[in-house]
From TrEMBL:
Family the entry assigns: Belongs to the peptidase M14 family.
Family annotation (PANTHER family): CYTOSOLIC CARBOXYPEPTIDASE, CYTOSOLIC CARBOXYPEPTIDASE 1
Cofactor needs: Zn(2+)
Listed name of the protein: Peptidase M14 domain-containing protein
Residues making up the signal peptide according to the UniProt record: 1-18
GO BP terms, alphabetized: proteolysis
Organism: Aggregatimonas sangjinii
Recorded GO MF terms: metallocarboxypeptidase activity; zinc ion binding
InterPro entries, A to Z: Cytosolic_carboxypeptidase, Peptidase_M14
Length: 420
């Protein structure tokens, strides 16, 4: 009897404990003006030091390194700053470094006032294949005590880097620029049932791409977007696996494509990504606050595209999903008591995903305050009746699990949409 009591107490304690540890989600959306604001253009080029001969470069798309100095002890201090302020705490960094002869250098990453180090460093020798830095080469300073959020972060970190003549790439996440995205959609567009088009230009004149899987004229449509926020690479990676599953040769995918057409905007913020922004567009705005005002060309292009598809096909969007990254995996859904074009779809879907992924407990935060629409999910639901959600992937979610979850999610979604 006593043993059972202890066990029950343990369960109560353990559950309470694990719930405290769970990411509680971000604070409610703040409605802000979305007319363009000035953005600081990053100086691009090479920083070269002598004795020893070391060069740092931010001269590539997606780079962010705002300054670097050599200290008296031979180590380096890098400064990383944002495109403008105020800005969410997601300090993106990416640079290359090389030296004439092989050596080990130490680089301290520091940030502008109020910002802390967030993204665990990834290294690459070719800009394509990335591995996290070895823990023994990484040291944190003044780390916060919280489990999640800015309060959990160190103020600065020191990296030990082995450099030689071949440039070493250092970045907050795997580098995924407009060029990487275009290569990806070009490859998928080789399939005869996939097409791509440009639906507009960003503030700085980059193309806004849409990839369409399935017949263009079909009335039953799904909308997928990703990367409104430049550093949110894990959400982008999940979107890729999700879309690859829908465009695959599986029996389910083939059957699905006979009934539904999926439109994808894989890169909502090409200027922000290629300029190495922390969060905003070249208009200096969080694009995911502009889905009621539509002051920015990027959100306008997608709104006009969706309205055009509805007008041209006389059809409907049944489902809309926006991929992001945050501190931990979480789904921001529309409160199930609000009914769109397929009531219950998102609830059934997340239940099915949980069933297929043992030991996975989805963290779901429903929302019923959808007006003003401001964010994409609310626009999908309010303007189109699409059952909608934000699919957030943790910054540090293991990449194999991220992939597995996206594949299961795509399969379960196709199955449920076909059943209805
Ligand atoms: Zn985001």
């Amino acid at each position: 009897m006593k043993k059972t009591l202890y066990f029950l107490l343990f369960l109560v304690f353990f559950n309470g404990f694990s719930q405290d540890k769970k990411f509680q989600g971000q604070a409610p959306i703040t409605i802000v003006p979305t007319t363009s604001l000035p953005v600081q253009k990053q100086w691009k080029g090479e920083y070269t030091f002598e004795n020893p001969d070391i060069t740092f470069s931010n001269d590539f798309d997606g780079a962010r390194l705002n300054g670097i100095v050599k200290n008296d002890d031979g180590s380096f201090t890098a400064l990383i700053t944002s495109e403008n302020t105020p800005v969410n705490p997601s300090p993106w960094y990416a640079f290359k470094v090389w030296s004439k002869s092989p050596r080990t250098i130490e680089v301290m990453l520091t940030y502008q006032q109020g910002a802390k180090h967030r993204y665990f460093p990834k290294l690459s020798m070719d800009g394509l294949r990335w591995t996290p830095i070895d823990l023994t080469d990484y040291k944190e300073y003044e780390k916060g005590a919280a489990d999640f959020g800015a309060g959990s972060l160190p103020v600065k970190v020191r990296l030990k880097l082995n450099v030689g003549q071949t440039p070493l790439w250092v970045a907050g996440q795997e580098l995924q620029t407009l060029k990487h995205m275009k290569d990806w959609i070009d490859e998928i567009s080789n399939k005869k049932f996939v097409n791509q088009q440009v639906i507009g230009k960003s503030t700085e004149g980059r193309d806004m791409h849409v990839m369409t899987i399935g017949k263009e004229k079909r009335k039953q449509m799904v909308m997928v977007i990703s990367r409104q926020h430049p550093p949110e690479v894990t959400g982008f990676l999940a979107m890729k696996s999700f879309i690859e599953t829908i465009a695959s040769e599986s029996r389910l995918a083939k059957k699905f494509r006979k009934k539904f057409t999926v439109h994808v905007v894989p890169l909502m913020n090409p200027d922000g990504v290629d300029n190495g922004h922390w969060r905003h567009s070249k208009g200096g705005i969080d694009l995911n606050r502009d889905w009621s005002n539509f002051n920015q060309p990027e959100t306008r292009a997608v709104r006009d595209f969706m309205e055009d598809r509805v007008a041209t096909t006389n059809g409907k969007f049944y489902f809309g999903i926006d991929f992001h990254s945050t501190w931990d995996d979480i789904y921001y859904t529309v409160d199930p008591k609000l009914k769109g074009n397929m009531p219950g779809l998102v609830t059934d879907w997340l239940t099915a995903v949980k069933k297929e992924l043992p030991n996975y407990e989805p963290n779901i935060k429903p929302n019923d305050e959808l007006i003003p629409t401001a964010v994409s999910r609310n626009y999908f639901f309010i303007a189109h009746g699409a059952e909608a959600l934000v699919f957030e992937v943790g910054d540090n979610t293991p990449r194999d699990f991220l992939h597995e979850k996206a594949v299961v999610s795509a399969n379960e979604l196709m199955r449920l949409l076909l059943e209805r």
